[in-house]
Amino acid sequence: MTDETIAELHERFASGGKDLEADVVAELKSIMRMHQLSVQDLFFKWESYGMKMGMDDFKATIDTLRAFKQNLQDELERSSRSLVHIKTEKRAAATPRTAKGGDLYGMLDGLATPGPGRSRPAAKRTPAVSRAKAEPTSSPLKVEDHLNAMGAIPSSSFSDRPNPGEVLEILNEQLDAAEPPISPFAEPRIKLTAASDQKKLGYKGLAMKLSEASEILDDRIEDFIGLVMEHHKLDYSAFGSPASQGTAEIVAVGRIASDSLEGKLNAASLVLESCRRLGSGLRIPLNLGKLKGYQFFPGQIVALRGINSSGREFTVHEVLNIPLLPNAASVPDAFLSHLQRLRGGPDTMESDDTATLPLTVLFASGPYTADDNLDFEPLHTICNEAADNYVDALVLTGPFIDMEHPLIASGDFDLPPEATYDADTATMATVFKYLVSPALNRLVAANPTVTVLLVPSARDVLDKHVSWPQDAFPRAQLGLPKTARIIGNPMTLSMNEVVVGISSQDVLFELRHEEIVGGARSGLDTLSRVSRYLIEQRHFFPLFPSADRKRLPKTGAVDGLGSGGVPPGAMLDVSYLKLGEMVNVRPDVLVVPSALPPFAKVVESVLVINPGFLSKRKAAGTYAKMTLNPPSKDDVGSGGMVAHKVFERARVEITRI
Fold it and tell me: Where is this region: Disordered (predicted)?
């Protein structure tokens, strides 16, 4: 084992700025050899095990590692036993071949096309879920199924996936599960209203100026100074520069950063970057010795009370709370109009409560097919679920045609035999039309009033706007149904009265791996804590700079040289980061797909949902189903603004596809 590998073990598993003990390193080496894991894969499985066991600090000791090792062995044995019952038949799929001189960016320009004259058997449809099927028994969330060893367990046919339909986690289990109607609704029951200005997302990419990016970052600190001043009722004289030596206590507002461009943030490398007006943009090291507990991440805007008596560091005495956006609320008349829509229109009797069925919304995130094929069976399955149960909305976040998919990256794949196209003019829009759109068209044919929302991803090969914030991709030549709507990334919109914030960027994973937590805990679990960062910072991607893409989960793409597996990363356009801010109020529902274990949690009155990925690289994934009960007349009242309180009315189920 090389010195670089040992150094990476120290970097990922050490805590408190101390190196690992020799016996701990030896145990880690043993686990890596036994299960043929890389350091990154081992760390992912270790974090997954820590979340399951409630280990918030993930401290690696010889005892915890031995328990972890035994857990891995038990999981491997259970997986081996389950594979005995799996059929040996495999679906026919195109065989990936190494592309010599393959050019992914040429594909973005429509130069990589399916080979002419090729054909393959039509994709096998997965049967629709029966409406009479009883709800699966709930079971605890098994986080060890996520962030797996990327190849330790062989892939199998989607039709032979274990436990389809199993409910992994339920939020608000005391609320009744929705009974599907016996027929489709006559009219759509959801009215969409955009809160974000989608036109602004159509900015010109790859034109970022350093001066503009600097202004955006500085303005964000200035905005928070005003918020802190108003919330804590402070005079302007109470604020000062943390880099200036003095004997008086001041309040410093700035951005958390690291004094090093490499490595993970730690207490020794922590610095505070001030704004130009109060601190000339200078950075000063922070002394956190007097704090009982803290939690920071790069890019976080904080308000710190302390003193710089030496001129060399700013000693923090207190971390001031950042005020949150107000909760979403509506006037009673708006509630009543939405209730009439749920009941079938204004002719329905207002006293007929039995006529009001809850809203049902499915949330899913790409990828939508496994690494070894382009059959998109998970996508067909969730569309069948939406059609069979007559759901009100299906929200799908990208990537749809993933640039990191091995077959897409190599360009070695076929379209269905029924596809008619000119090989000389075919583009990725043609691929989308024949591989993705058919599932959505069949859904709309079976459930005409369903609302379908598509949110792009920075990994979508279809979208030339690859930076984040990201504009919607054009729908021309995609063959989508008329009821399908393509929105920006991120996007804040209203479904009736419910304010929904959506971003396909995996910010939770990056925050979890870039944050530093020390001292006394905040009382929140790991997933709730990283979700709260978004709400507190009022932004869909508050991390800056984004995480090193080499630290992100690997992908299956391989370039012409035989290397690859490194995702493209966040691809932020700093000049337009303001478009990633939350609009006016806290969203009622915040949808943030992530490689972290899927979950549904209430954080600061916000229902945060991570549906997981519908398809993992070599296995089926998960999705989320939200059943939203209408408010009662007593809740609506007759005057003033009425809080939505969606977190009390919504039942959310995390389910295996």
Answer: 112-139
Q: CB–CB of 516/257 below 8 Å? A: no
Residue 215 CA to residue 211 CA, distance in Å, equals 6
Which run of H or E residues covers position 114?
none
Contact of 297 with 543, CB cutoff 8 Å: yes
For 88, residues 6+ apart whose C-beta sits below 8 A from its C-beta are none
DSSP 399-414: -SSBTTSHHHHHT---
Strand pairing of 451-455 and 484-486? parallel
The model's pLDDT over 92-124, given as tens digits with 9 standing for 90+, comes to: 444 444 444 444 434 334 334 444 444 444 443
Count of alpha carbons within 13 angstroms of residue 354, beta-carbon side? 0
Specify the pLDDT at position 85. 47
Do the Cβ atoms of 326 and 641 come closer than 8 Å? no
Q: Using alpha carbons only, what angle is made at residue 91 by residues 90 and 93, rounded to the nearest 5 degrees?
A: 120
**What distance in Å separates the CA atoms of residue 544 and residue 583, rounded to the nearest whole number?**
20
The radius of gyration of the chain's CA atoms, rounded to the nearest angstrom, is 26
**Beta bridge pairs of residue 114:** none
Confidence of residue 528 (pLDDT cuts 50, 70, 90): very high
Pairwise CA distance, residues 30 & 51, whole Å: 22
d(CA 511, CA 531): 9
Residue in the structure block whose two tokens are 């209730």: 339
User: Residue 483: which of 475, 494, 491 has the closest Cα?
Assistant: 475
Residue 1 has pLDDT above 70, yes or no: no
Mean pLDDT over each residue of the chain, to the nearest integer: 83
Phi and psi, residue 193, nearest 5°: -135, 125
Contact 316, 290 (CB under 8 A): yes
In three-state secondary structure terms, 284 is strand
| pLDDT tens readout for residues 339-359 | 888 887 554 444 444 468 899
Residue 220 CA to residue 205 CA, distance in Å, equals 21
Is there a contact between 592 and 532 (Cβ–Cβ < 8 Å)? no
Residue 645 gets the label, from left (phi > 0), alpha (psi -120 to 50) or beta, of: left
157: nearest Cα among 92, 82, 84, 91:
91
628 closest CA partner among 484, 538, 485, 500: 500
Per DSSP, 61 falls in state -
Q: How far apart are CA 30 and CA 291, in angstroms?
A: 38
Please give the share of the chain, as a percent, with pLDDT higher than 70.
83
Q: What CA–CA distances, in Å, run from 561 to 40, 98, 192, 564?
A: 22, 8, 47, 8
Burial class (CB in 10 A: 0-12, 13-18, 19+), 248: exposed
Query: Mean pLDDT over residues 61-79, rounded?
Result: 82
What phi and psi values does residue 123 have, to the nearest 5 degrees? Answer: -65, 135
Q: Which of 130-144, 220-234, 271-285 has the lowest mean pLDDT?
A: 130-144
pTM surpassing 0.85? no
What is residue 93's predicted lDDT score, i.e. its pLDDT?
43
In Å, how far are 10, 42, 47, 263, 559 from 17, measured between CA atoms? Answer: 10, 20, 19, 12, 37
pLDDT band at 399 (very low <50, low <70, confident <90, very high): very high
